[in-house]
Amino acid sequence: MSVRTAFRATAIVMATAALGLGLASGAQAGTAVAPDARDSAAVAPAADHPFEAMELDGLKVKRLTMWPAGHPVSFWALVLDDKRAGEKYSDGKFFVYAPATKEFGWFLNMDIVRRTVSHPGQVVIVDSEFLRSHPRVEVRYGNPDRPEQARFVASATTWM
Question: What is the largest CA-CA distance in the chain?
Fold first, then answer.
């Protein structure tokens, strides 16, 4: 893993932790959310998402929520659309790849940053910085040690 990828992974984990702590301390001063009310309505929606200017093929924007310490932390992510998520995949791993620079991105699996995931439902991309810093980023399926031979699954293209 490159230093740049490791830095990005660490930055998102730290940002999520900081946001979770801020929500936890703010929740003490406000009204607590009951655990049974854990749905998207319990979290205030943001006006914009960081993937607005991207052309998506096989991906969709989704608002997700994690519950560290019982408090909601909401964030925007790219996930596979229903058609791509419903396809059959075997003998490989999903990975995020920028073909122009041959760099790898990462997925957020639960609250753990991972370079590869096994199941289409685990394809959750939150690193908008990585996506915006490369003109085209692809989700591929196969052997990450041979990315050029891996199967194309989806892409996000940023028009500069």
Answer: 54
Helix (H, G, I), strand (E, B) or coil at 44: coil
DSSP string spanning 77-136? EEEE-HHHHTS---SSEEEEEETTTTEE--EEETTEEESEESSGGG-EE--HHHHHTSSE
Nearest to 97 by CA among 55, 121, 131: 131
pTM: 0.70
Residue with tokens 């999520």: 16
The pLDDT of residue 73 is above 70: yes
Query: What tens digit of pLDDT does each residue of 92-140 get?
Result: 999 999 999 999 999 998 888 999 999 999 999 999 899 989 999 999 9
User: Does residue 36 come out as left (phi exceeding 0), alpha (psi in the -120 to 50 range) or beta?
Assistant: alpha
